[in-house]
Specification:
The chain has a domain of 165 residues: Rossmann fold, CATH 3.40.50.150. It contains 10 helices and 9 strands. Helix 2 packs parallel to helix 3 and helix 6 crosses helix 10. The longest helix has 19 residues. It binds benzoic acid (BEZ). The site of benzoic acid has 8 residues, from loops.
Length: 258
């Protein structure tokens, strides 16, 4: 989900609101689990496990899964499911050559120092271990970002330090993986327009709080209204059905055996 030390974004997490407005994250995440192909007895780290829904799903294969997330609220929700979950910052993973695989879904775009995160993932993996992840890639939620930035600018507010996400290109992330010591098996950007079951205002409330951080309520309301108005031309069908312009970066990589 989010990280503590390298994220000054002001994003806050609420497990109930997350499951209410973003249940598609788990549905789509199951495709990434297929790519992971967990085996009984394997030790797997679920990095940014959120409320543990996918941690639990991976565990049903007979793999031994540990979920970590920086959000206390998410970890409480994960523990309530009965999964093994711990509140740990992704930049301070305490694991040393312990896992057969590290899995991460819809989390890495919140971590603004990807090289450090990849180095921690590498250290957590056994030699030959694999890394399977999906997160926002280059162009992800581009219309949403542009509408937010324009709406803030219209009120004289700079969005420069409010944009909280890392959305790399294939070339950039592949290079980073190789620099850290991974061999890339597959890496691609996938455009995946995603229906928002409870609409754009709820998506913005759930995920885009850094853009609104510290604003007075009346200004926040105007920025929100203008953003929705701008986005209605591209991301709403006019009958109240909204979608988000998601672009996923999907990657599989492994460490050499020695
Ligand atoms: C994503 O999953 O791509 C995403 C979710 C929330 C905010 C930004 C990106």
């Amino acid at each position: 989900m989010t990280d503590i030390s390298n994220n000054t974004s002001g994003q806050t997490w609420d497990a109930t609101s997350y499951s209410q407005h973003a249940d598609y994250v788990v549905t789509y995440g199951k495709d990434v689990v297929k790519l992971l192909s967990p085996k009984p007895g394997e030790r797997i780290l679920d990095l940014g496990c959120g409320d543990g829904a996918l941690t639990e799903y991976i565990g049903q294969t007979g793999a031994e899964v540990v979920g970590v997330d920086a959000s206390e609220d998410m970890i409480e929700a994960a523990l309530a499911r009965g999964v093994n979950a711990r509140r740990i910052d992704a930049y301070q993973l305490p694991f040393d050559q312990e896992f057969d695989a590290v899995f991460s879904n819809a989390a890495l775009h919140w971590m603004l120092d990807p090289q450090t995160v990849l180095a921690c993932i590498k250290r957590a993996l056994k030699p030959g271990g694999r890394f399977v992840a999906e997160f926002g890639g280059h162009g992800n939620v581009a219309a949403i970002c542009t509408a937010l930035i324009a709406s803030l600018q219209f009120r004289g507010i700079s969005a420069k330090h409010r944009h909280p996400w890392y959305f790399p290109t294939v070339e950039e992330y592949a290079h980073l993986l190789e620099t850290v010591g991974f061999k890339v098996d597959s890496i691609e950007l996938i455009a995946r327009p995603t229906k928002l079951p409870t609409g754009m205002a709820n998506w913005l409330d759930t995920f885009a709080s850094p853009f609104f951080h510290g604003l007075d309520d009346d200004i926040k309301e105007t920025v929100m209204d203008n953003t929705l108005n701008l986005l209605s031309h591209s991301l709403s069908d006019g009958q109240g059905h909204w979608s988000a312009d998601y672009v996923r970066l999907r990657v599989t990589a492994h460490l050499p055996t020695s």
